[in-house]
Specification:
Strand content: 5-15%
Number of helices: 32
Distance between the termini: 87 Å
Structural class: alpha/beta
Radius of gyration: 31 Å
Bound molecules: thiamine diphosphate, magnesium ion
Shape: elongated
Strand order of the largest sheet: 10-7-11-12-14-13
Length: 778
């Protein structure tokens, strides 16, 4: 097919994509039964703004190895394109925003068509592409993927308001440090966010900012028609007029149409030679078409810009667009959630030449033969057969993991040793571990691993301190062989890098086992990015340490309180908080399996810097299973026992001390170690629903654990974190609970003072038991 015909096909399909995205939203809002009185929504204006850019990318520029994060509100455009390519069903479009239909925002896990990166929380999808580009480089540098094929481009279609999100700039800076390449950010510069029209001249700031970060910037400001007008007599004045037109006035005139343009141009440029003729030659409609001919809506300008890129430098396309382009509310500042009325839609249908009843048809109303369009679509480079969702086989996990030795050790230190041991051996597993940390590598105990495996960098960099023979325990040599990615202090970046590393299997076909470390309280700093990573089913091991008030002298601001509740509440993330080294080793072994399990997920380990005396024991298979399932009896209760102490993690010594005291009065009492409140809780909920669905035989691990206790037994629960993480245990068998934990901000102190102040000391535990027993008698 010759170039002109191709362009004609692209133009026709661009129109169709605008139609289908508008219609999909209209149908969902006006033609589907609404049972709950809630608006369905959808963003016709946001879609219209990006139709040309996405048409050019998907139907001409992209290749199968490229990966895209589509701005959230352009989901219907994405699905329309997939539909035209035969990868999305009409049924899913008809059920846009309904259960089982196309999702409101592109979703890797919930959409049936080929979403590369989920989006929704603005800014995150954008940054995700940058980290995916780093991961691609990691894999190519190590030759873990074939390097004879060209690398993919990681492309983000960016709403301009997304650039207000700080995480975008955190990512840009990190990208600069790592010399990122093969990443394109295409900014849909419609100068509108949700509420308003944006500041003038923002484009200059964006331009400078990206160039400062080492990016190429390509500005697509005007389309071919306007450029032609600028080349005429009076054209310079016209260009200057538009260049200087405030964003709000430009938007308002876009909305008003031809008469509005004429009025303003006559008033401002009526005396300029050449402009009068230009106005005379254009009727109102033609004048409107001319004045709205921005770069981002001009297919040829867009194609030239994309195809003009040579090489792999990170590139930002600043494409001027109009929000709602081609629709009745184009340019109106309130159009973000605006929907065409049924009358407007009817008019739009007629102008698109779509017959009533044929609204979903892919080729209805287009002025090119269907065969030709089909031929064009079947030749689209992006749609050529290629594996875009890989399923690499799991890596074997050695069993069991030897527990770190030492009679008194913290879980943080133990984890460091476990990784260091893995680094020493040459297993396939250890080759695929990638660690990452936002400037807390050494303080979270990854030092020994990094000493053995090195820091990753495409460019080899010597450890100058070593060369200069300055003594240091920490080697810092960067090379392509390195397996640790060091980040600056930005937790958002850690989570987005973990998201990208954790999708290396499905996206690039190579399984990686990412391990990220950070301080537990700063999970909250990047929580949305963590949630984003989990939502895409990225798989990683998150190691958070130090945690809780047990951090003690190092101060209140670093003492995490609600983290155990995040562990329970975050879907896709299974939380563990071991106390002892043998538990830790078993959980880490399990984690490496779970990360690779089709039905698994990511794992969060909440660790501590407090050294604990280790129990002398060797774990049998039963105990190993219980540790992974979430809990085991350190001291089993006698049948019908009236008391159990239940604890999680680092408070073990206080609980054991209290237990020894209590046992004298309550001989049958039990001592329950909970390694994962999250797992126990999930298992309990799952068993309840299995029973509700008719299988009375199912028993949850926690139900089995609590079964020996008397119905009126008292449970006293203790953890260094919010007490609600364990207080639900009372509901399992209807037993009474007194929950100890931390509900207030921490402060500096040593462990005895802090545990006394926050009610975690052995005395406090004994007191709680007395209260629980009193309550029971009341
Ligand atoms: C983190 C986050 N905060 C708020 C929102 C709500 N929101 C959705 S779209 C939007 C503005 C989008 O403007 P822009 O990125 O310019 O996209 P456009 O629709 O103009 O293309 C906002 C604030 C969101 N989705 N995510
Ligand atoms: Mg915008």
């Amino acid at each position: 097919m010759d170039v002109d015909r191709q362009l004609a096909c692209l133009r026709a399909l661009e129109r169709k994509i605008l139609w289908l995205s508008s219609w999909t939203i209209h149908h969902a809002n006006h033609l589907r039964e609404r049972r709950d009185g809630l608006k369905v929504g959808g963003h016709q204006a946001s879609c219209a703004s990006v139709v040309t850019l996405m048409t050019a990318l998907y139907l001409d520029v992209l290749r199968p190895q490229d990966r895209v994060a589509v701005k959230p509100h352009a989901s219907p455009v994405f699905h329309a394109i997939q539909y035209l390519l035969g990868r999305q069903t009409r049924d899913a479009l008809e059920r846009f925003r309904a259960m089982g239909g196309a999702q409101s925002y592109p979703s890797r896990t919930k959409d049936a068509d080929d979403v590369d990166f989920s989006t929704g929380s603005v800014g995150l999808g954008v940054a995700m592409t940058l980290f995916a580009a780093l991961v691609q480089d990691y894999l190519r540098t190590k030759k873990l993927v074939p390097t004879d094929a060209p690398p993919g481009r990681m492309v983000a279609l960016v709403g301009d308001a997304e650039l207000d999100e700080g995480n975008v700039f955190e990512a840009l800076l990190e990208g600069w440090k790592h010399d990122v390449r093969n990443v394109w950010w295409v900014i849909d510069y419609n100068r509108q966010s949700l509420d308003r029209v944006m500041e003038d001249r923002l484009s200059l700031q964006i331009d400078t900012l990206f160039r400062d970060m080492g990016w190429d910037v390509i500005v697509l400001k005007y389309g071919r028609r306007l450029e032609a007008a600028f080349a005429r007599r009076g054209g310079d004045a016209l260009r200057q007029w538009i260049d200087e037109c405030p964003n709000s006035l430009y938007s308002a005139l876009v909305y008003k149409g031809g008469a509005g343009w004429r009025e303003h141009l006559l008033r401002d440029l009526g005396d300029t030679s050449g402009v009068g003729e230009l106005l005379d030659e254009h009727d109102d409609d033609a004048l409107h078409t001319l004045m709205t001919n921005l770069g981002g809506h001009d297919l040829e300008t867009v194609l030239d810009a994309f195809h003009g890129v040579r090489g792999d430098r990170p590139t930002c396309f600043l494409a001027y667009t109009i929000k709602g382009y081609g629709l009745p509310f184009a340019g109106h500042k309130d159009n973000h959630a605006g929907l065409m009325t049924p009358d407007q839609m009817e008019l739009f249908r007629r102008t698109q030449g779509v017959e009533a009843g044929r609204e979903w048809e892919a080729f209805a109303g287009l002025d090119l033969p269907e065969d030709e369009l089909r031929e064009f679509l079947s030749a689209v480079p992006f749609a050529q057969p290629a594996e875009r969702r890989h399923r690499p086989p799991p890596l074997a996990v050695p069993e069991p993991f030897p527990a770190p030795r030492g009679s008194k050790l913290s879980t943080q230190e133990g984890f460091g040793r476990l990784l260091a041991d893995l680094a020493r051996g040459g297993s396939a597993l250890s080759e695929r571990i990638v660690t990452a940390s936002p400037d807390v590598t050494v303080s979270t105990n990854l030092g020994a691993w990094v000493n053995r495996r090195g820091v990753f960098d495409r460019r080899r960099q010597a450890d100058v301190f070593r060369l200069e023979e300055v003594v240091s325990a920490q080697k810092w040599e960067a090379s392509p062989e390195g397996q640790h990615i060091e980040l600056g202090i930005a937790e958002n970046n850690l989570f987005l890098l973990l998201a990208a590393l954790g999708l290396a299997g499905p996206v690039f076909g190579v399984r990686l086992l990412p391990v990220g470390t950070l301080y537990d309280p700063f999970i909250a700093r990047g929580l949305d990015a963590l949630n984003y990573a989990c939502y895409q089913d990225a798989r990683f091991l998150l190691v958070a340490t130090p945690s809780g008030i047990t951090l003690a002298p190092e101060g209140g601001a670093h003492q995490s309180v609600s983290a155990p509740l995040i562990g329970i509440g975050q879907p896709g993330l299974l939380a563990y908080e071991p106390a002892f080294q043998d538990e830790l080793a078993e959980i880490v072994r399990f984690a490496f399996q779970y990360l690779q399990d089709e039905h698994g997920g990511s794992i969060y380990l909440r660790l501590s810097t407090r050294p604990l005396t280790q129990p002398e024991r060797s774990l049998g298979p039963e105990l190993r299973r219980e540790i992974v399932e979430g809990g085991y009896w350190l001291v089993p209760p006698e049948p019908g026992a009236e008391l159990a102490l239940v604890y999680t993690g680092v408070v073990a010594p206080e609980v054991q001390e209290a237990f020894a005291e209590l046992r004298e009065d309550t001989p049958g009492a039990g001592l329950l170690a909970v390694t994962s409140a999250d797992r126990l809780h999930a298992g309990w909920r799952a068993a309840q629903s299995a029973r509700a669905s008719g299988d009375p035989t199912v028993r949850a691990a926690v139900e089995t654990l609590l079964a020996p206790l008397a119905r009126e037994a008292a449970l006293v629960t203790v953890l260094d974190g919010h007490p609600a993480a364990l207080s639900w245990l009372g509901a399992v068998a209807g037993q009474r609970v007194v929950s100890l934990g931390v509900e207030r901000f921490g402060q500096s102190g040593d462990i005895p003072d802090l545990y006394r102040e926050y009610g975690l000391s052995a005395d406090a535990i004994v007191g709680a038991v007395a209260r629980a027993c009193l309550d029971r008698r009341a």
